[in-house]
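Practice record 12: protein with protoporphyrin IX containing FE.
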Amino acid sequence: MSTVAPGPRGHVIFGSLPNLRQDPAGFLRESQAGFGDVARFSFGTKVAHLVSSPSGIRHVLQTNAKNYTKNTPGIQKLKAILGEGLLTSDGEFWLRQRRIAQPAFHRERLKAFGDLIDRHTQALCCRWRGSAEAGAPVDAHREMMALTLTIVGEALFGSDVAADAPTVAHALDEILLVQDARFTRAVPIPTWLPISENRRFDAAKAALDDVCWRMIEGRRGKTSGRSDLLSMLMEARDPETGQGMSDKQLRDEVITLFVSGHETTANALTYALYLLGTHEGEHASLAAAADKAFPKGIQCLEVFHWAPVERVVNEAMRLYPPAWLFARSPIADDVVDGFSIPKDSFVFISAWVVHRKPALWPRADAFEPSRFDGPAPDRFAYFPFGGGARQCIGSNFAEMEMHAIVARIVQQFCWQSTGGTPTIDPKVTLRPKGVVPLSLTLRAAPPQ
Ligand code: HEM
């Protein structure tokens, strides 16, 4: 027996669309609190359910994942830039691409990136030393965006991309900006209209494509002995068919990795730094643990999954999950936790809602890294990287990077977050609105 799930009544014509547009994060949290773990909304003629129980999420992402596609308006919009990359494709095509790309993201292979993460993080620390001495605050979000872009750029292309870095940074900024505007607009503006937004998007996409094509072209026949992701993807073969990727597939995957690997990681790092800057005790205990464990300084590969830093990063992503909302569409009628889910509707899964559910997380809004010291939470009560077959392919990369960056910065600096609680800006990712100022001081004789 299944029943229709309860949910907000919404506007007579637009349903819950106005609420979702006005304050998506607040509205979804209130809906779960008010209507339970399967809450039903309408958007004009469309129906959506927010599923927030670990059992329901497991059902959608894992047990009955075959019934759920990523064919949603949000993903269709992302295709304008990502094409048919891993994040946006579905079915057999996706499976084949995932099989080919997966080995490039194995932990052992990722270790090749330890040095570059250390090098760029140390360069940032050297600059921050100047800011600390001058008493000039730094903007954590801006700094983390630049750092993660440099790291993912070099991981993808090797050092060849250095000369193109400003072009890539500008193009990605433009793309994220336009993508966000398109994402949240109720009535889409046709992308062929020659308005400024579309022109900017097209120019940025062309600039990014140009860099990607040049990199692919330049790498042809020269991949052996190289450890960058592009070379790995160019050499990779489907273990079942022996086939590699076409140039178009390579382009789509490379841009997908750029876009998915850059802002998500930067947002998580920004919130981790902000939270440490408002919780002096947590900063002090992490710094003391780092001094004890690594008296000669932090090396990326040593701190990957090092518990004192891992729990801080986990807790930051619990409170502020960068991939805060994702959606699926069922291809056949289904039942989730006893409620009927009609085919061709939408299912929303929000880490932002679930990670702050009081029934799952005592003192849900508080920053308490020690909660990760105990037994691991249910796999689908904490899922910053998603779950099931579509879970993030870059999670090891992101964690290795975040653990190293946070540990190194903490060992070298103390800081206060002087800008108050950052307002969240939930769009494609959950990010802070405006600057996130940190007022730095050097720790006494920090290791280099
Ligand atoms: C803190 C950083 C990151 C977070 C929170 C994050 C989160 C996620 C989540 C939740 C998904 C699943 C979305 C869904 O099920 O609809 C995903 C997918 C994906 N992520 Fe990440 N990600 C991060 C970093 C990265 C990095 C560093 C890369 C690559 C370098 C990356 C590449 C991808 C790709 C390619 C997919 C699609 C996988 C597939 O469907 O096969 N991500 N990510």
